[in-house]
Hints:
The structure holds two protein chains of two kinds.
Chain A: E1 3-7, H1 8-17, E2 23-26, H2 33-44, E3 51-54, H3 58-70, E4 75-79, H4 81-86, H5 88-96, E5 102-107, H6 121-124, E6 132-135, H7 139-156, E7 160-165, E8 172-177, H8 181-188, H9 211-243, E9 250-253, E10 260-264, H10 268-275, E11 282-287, E12 289-291, H11 295-304, E13 309-314, H12 324-332, E14 341-346, H13 355-362, E15 373-375
Parallel strand pairs in A: 2-3, 2-4, 4-5, 5-7, 6-7, 10-11, 10-13, 13-14, 14-15
Antiparallel strand pairs in A: 1-8, 6-12, 9-11
Helix pairs in contact in A: 1-2, 1-7, 3-5, 7-9
Chain B: E1 5-13, H1 18-31, E2 35-41, E3 50-58, E4 73-76, E5 95-99, E6 117-123, H2 125-131, E7 135-136, E8 139-140, H3 143-154, H4 159-169, H5 174-187, E9 189-195
Amino acid sequence: MAYEMLSGSQAAAAAVQRANVDLVAAYPITPQTAIVETLANFEAKGELGGDFVSVESEYAALACCYGAAAAGARVFTATASHGLAYMHEVIHWCSGARVPVVMVNVNRAIGAPWCLDPDQGDSLSQRDTGWMQIYCSGAQEVFDTVLQAYVLSEELLLPCLVVFDGFYISHTYEAVDVPEKEKTLEFVGEKKFKAQVIPGAPANLHGLTTGDNQILLVKNRHETMIKAIDLFKDVNKKYEEFFGRSYKVVDSVIPPGSTTVFMAAGATVETIRWALPELDDCGLIQLRMFRPYPAEELCAILEAHEVERVIVVDRNCSVGMGGIFSQELRAALYKMEKPPVVEDLILAGGIDLTVEMLHKALEPVNEDRLTDQKWGVDVR
Amino acid sequence: MENEMLEFRIHGRGGQGIVVAAAIFAEAVFMEGYYARAFSLFGAERRGAPVTAFIRAGKNRLMPRSRVYHPDYVAIFDSTMTGASLVSGLKKSGTLLLNSKNDFKNSLFKDIPRDMDIKTFFVDATDIAWKHNLAIGSFPMVNTVMLGAMAHNSGMASLDSLVESIRKRVSARLEENIAAVKEGFESVKEVGSFVN
């Protein structure tokens, strides 16, 4: 193992540098800047292996990646917050056009007012754009997931968003095993997808169609994306053989007899995991893959452990409804015979999660159960 | 150190190299065979704005991903910073390291609760930084001096590991920085067990 002390952002850039990428087009934004900076440094030293395009905006960054991917290139971009929101139209387009793109989004709250803390609302507001979304809980996971995202994206011809929290991951230096480039290139493999844009063979791409055709395309995209759940398992089997590490779409640590579990995605996972020994009879579910949504896997875990209560840690809020991860879980549980109660700990604004807050989250919600929500700001 | 985890908090200002210092310290701790993480909190910072960095070090790879609220060790890189929030949560028998010309003059002491039994150290990092020509304009870069002092009294990183990490991470004025880290290591003084 060749460990390097890297920040989450540097780990993402290190993976891109080891993935034989043809083109990087990116625009810096806090807290993602170090990704762009690190890749630009690779480029300056001639170590990137592909082209680095400095663009005038995030919209241009993704549009540039789209065009290159349509011409058969392996591409990368990264952004956060307002940058992701600004890309929105092209985010849809990449998925509909079935080009493989890997993008990192470093979670940051969206204004107004300006805020840099890691609210997940930026990536979650792109939930319905037809991209896979994978949430990472640390720098090693970031490195490994970016490499795996290329395999998933190129196999399924669907773009993939790799997501992690600003500061708590992006700016945290920790030991990351960075394998030899030779091995990572072998893992990611040669590009096999076909170029849509071919010089000398003009064609009209993605022209006007009708709903009757569009529905078939959407259905196909949906059915293809569902395959990512099984493909993720295969990809991780291969990754384990290559590098001795693997991940699941949903991970769980549920000690025998635990009837309550916390569920989280991103950096808060490790705070909960750390606190488990002092949280009596509590388990943890880590939601790694959010799109496609691993409903069956989640229900199977909850059923097997006869979980009665799930407290979802949502570093986000769909205003007017509540935490987004908790809503998605509730929607997935309706087929269960005895679904658990789902409560929500809302850390909107990207506020810090402490062990003390987890203890308070375990206290019963209002006796009249008027609400299943607790706000992080009320339990600090 | 068997199962426990030590938590550090560094206070300083943008431009003093707080973020880099935390990464260097974490790397040096890792070289000693412990796991370590360093992270920083800042806004859209400018030179001179307050910056806080956190380091965790321990035998376990698994650590919480939250800020440090109850540090075992607080290092204050900027001699002009004051206020109770700098020492808030410091453990009763924790360690405080100050960039200060002398021991008992620092106004921080009035902010330390009376029942504390902390070990207090000081080093004149500003003066040492000037001496080694480590200033950007009129702004002394005290980070490597303070790292040397932290290595001396925290027991978590050796001077050799620090120097090795600095060689990897610092390109400007490398030899001056290495001289500064060594002088910080040698110059740190203990005030004595400080009971307010």
